[in-house]
Amino acid sequence: MTPPSAAPARDRLRIAIQKSGRLAEPARALLSSCGLSWRESRDRLFCYGETLPVDLLLVRDDDIPGLIADGVCDLGIVGRNVLLEQDGERRGIGRAPAFREWRALGFGGCRLALAVPDGWEWRSVSQLAGKRIATSYPALLSQWLATQCIDAKVVVLSGSVEIAPRLGQADAICDLVSSGATLAANQLKPVQTLIESEAVLAGPEQAFDDVRGELADLLLRRLDGALRIRHSKLLLFQAPRSVLPDLLPLLPDAETPTVMQVDGQDSLALQALCHGALTWQRLEELKRAGARGLMVLPVEGMLA
Ligand SMILES: Nc1ncnc2c1ncn2[C@@H]1O[C@H](COP(=O)(O)OP(=O)(O)OP(=O)(O)O)[C@@H](O)[C@H]1O
Ligand SMILES: O=P(O)(O)OC[C@H]1O[C@H](OP(=O)(O)OP(=O)(O)O)[C@H](O)[C@@H]1O
Ligand SMILES: [Mg+2]
């Protein structure tokens, strides 16, 4: 008999994603590319999985690690910055790790960086000693300061961190940076990266030991296929048989190409799925090596 304290076994997988915000659409698009589709509830907070028993819960990104820790959700798509910050918070109060990164997803790229006013002559991190640093990532910043043996005051703000030095609330900041435009607009310059971030699939520390384990494995297999093919292109071209040894090493991270004989000629027709960057430069190199009629096609399909 199941002990009363044990969570009831679930036969559906529940994934938390951001309701709105930067990661909402790409997260859904990625899961759709894994063959999932949903029926949305009227309050638009829950999506019932139709093609597979995989449901979505639409939430604030900050809530995702806690929902996994509490077992309310099985998996979540969230920025690594949020996951690591909340992991640091838990460790800071002596709680066991309750979630971890299962996969990096290749979108939502940004970095958590220290920035100082443009006017500072930056020499080393020791200049931060005794300074006030504004951030929405106090756990990550405090951890980093400790590793650098720097005693600085951490000023916690929930947003608009870049304005703090101008308002006299802080001497420096630690916030997310992508293009750097927000820093520049606030006369700040990045001086140190604490973490490189992107959206990740987060899950519990341990694998599931019920039917969710099989669903999660299936999802991961599809996800890996979708991620591998995401920037891939199908390259089609013809070439004389004799130049094949020169051409093949030029194919960027390609699967073994399909090679077909062109009727009545000493020419071959090739098709290669390329995972590496097919730049103009690379196409020109292929052409110089003897490739003809090069055609690059986007890949929308699946890699099973
Ligand atoms: N400028 C940026 N460029 C790229 N990715 C970013 C940028 N800023 C944030 N991100 C990533 O996107 C995630 C979500 O950012 P967003 O601004 O939508 O969060 P939020 O305002 O906290 O949303 P929520 O309403 O869900 O709490 C961040 O945690 C980070 O991983
Ligand atoms: O380097 P950039 O390309 O300028 O991006 C960095 C900015 O993007 C995020 O803010 P967001 O626009 O989400 O506003 P918020 O912090 O108020 O949520 C982040 O907090 C930075 O402020
Ligand atoms: Mg948030």
TrEMBL record:
Keywords assigned: Amino-acid biosynthesis, ATP-binding, Cytoplasm, Glycosyltransferase, Histidine biosynthesis, Magnesium, Metal-binding, Nucleotide-binding, Transferase
UniProt-listed Enzyme Commission number(s): 2.4.2.17
Gene giving rise to this polypeptide: hisG
Protein name per Swiss-Prot or TrEMBL: ATP phosphoribosyltransferase
Coiled coil: none
Leader peptide range in chain numbering: none
GO MF terms, alphabetically ordered: ATP phosphoribosyltransferase activity
Location of the protein in the cell: Cytoplasm
EC top class, as a word: transferase
Co-factor(s): Mg(2+)
Predominant localisation class: cytoplasm
Functional summary from the UniProt entry: Catalyzes the condensation of ATP and 5-phosphoribose 1-diphosphate to form N'-(5'-phosphoribosyl)-ATP (PR-ATP). Has a crucial role in the pathway because the rate of histidine biosynthesis seems to be controlled primarily by regulation of HisG enzymatic activity.
Pathway in which this enzyme or protein is active: Amino-acid biosynthesis; L-histidine biosynthesis; L-histidine from 5-phospho-alpha-D-ribose 1-diphosphate: step 1/9
Domain ATP phosphoribosyltransferase catalytic: 60-223
Ranges that cross the membrane: none
Reaction catalyzed: 1-(5-phospho-beta-D-ribosyl)-ATP + diphosphate = 5-phospho-alpha-D-ribose 1-diphosphate + ATP
Family membership: Belongs to the ATP phosphoribosyltransferase family. Long subfamily.
Xref: PROSITE patterns: ATP_P_PHORIBOSYLTR
Activity regulation (record text): Feedback inhibited by histidine.
NCBIfam families linked: hisG, HisG_C-term
The Histidine biosynthesis HisG C-terminal domain, residue ranges: 231-300
